Amino acid sequence: MNPAVLDAFALAIIAGGSGPAYPGLLEKPRDEERARGAAAKIRGAMDALLKAAPNAGAYVSESDYFRERWQDAYWGSHYARLLRVKDALDPGRLFHVHHGVGSEGWSADGFSRDRR
User: Fold this and answer.
1) d(CA 94, CA 47)
2) Distance CA 70, CA 100 (A)
3) Hey, how many other C-beta atoms are within 10 angstroms of the C-beta on 4?
4) C-alpha distances in angstroms, 40 versus 14, 16, 27, 29, 36?
5) pTM over 0.85
6) Residues 6 or more apart from 88 whose CB is under 8 A from it?
7) Is 91 helix (H, G, I), strand (E, B) or coil?
8) 51/48 Cα distance (integer angstroms)
9) Distance from CA of residue 28 to its chain's centroid?
10) Phi, psi values for residue 106, rounded to 5°
């Protein structure tokens, strides 16, 4: 966890949703235009929040899937050490999660990776 989270004075949650976005889930067809509109509103709110607190930490399990500089946001000053541990214990980086330590080489869908 990013050490900055421990010094936070508040927790801010910016979210949107109206149930599953994919066909077959609750029998609702996917509405990509609506989903993109909601994502744009959330991005705007996040941009305003990050303008007020540009170096705020974030909790990785409840975060922006598209976050830039996620290594800093989620792991902060711990990232370099955590990456060394990851490389020692999982040198092929078989075990990964989106925006997890060492996941840079994986595609966004988690199905392909660079062969370092």
Assistant:
1) 33
2) 9
3) 16
4) 12, 11, 25, 20, 6
5) no
6) none
7) coil
8) 5
9) 26
10) -95, 150
Half-sphere exposure of 68 (CA within 13 A, CB side): 5
| Predicted confidence pLDDT, tens digits, the chain (116 residues) | 788 777 777 888 887 766 655 556 666 666 788 888 888 998 899 889 889 888 777 777 767 777 888 898 889 999 999 999 999 999 888 888 888 899 887 877 777 776 44
Q: How many of the other CB atoms lie within 10 Å of CB of 63? A: 14
Q: Tokens 């399990």 identify what position?
A: 61
Query: What pLDDT is stored for residue 26 in this prediction?
Result: 61
Which tokens in the block code for residue 115? 């062969």
* CA distance readout (Å), 49 to 2, 11, 80, 86, 91: 18, 11, 26, 31, 37
Amino acid 116: pLDDT: 45
The token pair at 113 is 């990776």
Amino acid identity at 56: A
Nearest to 65 by CA among 43, 37, 49: 43
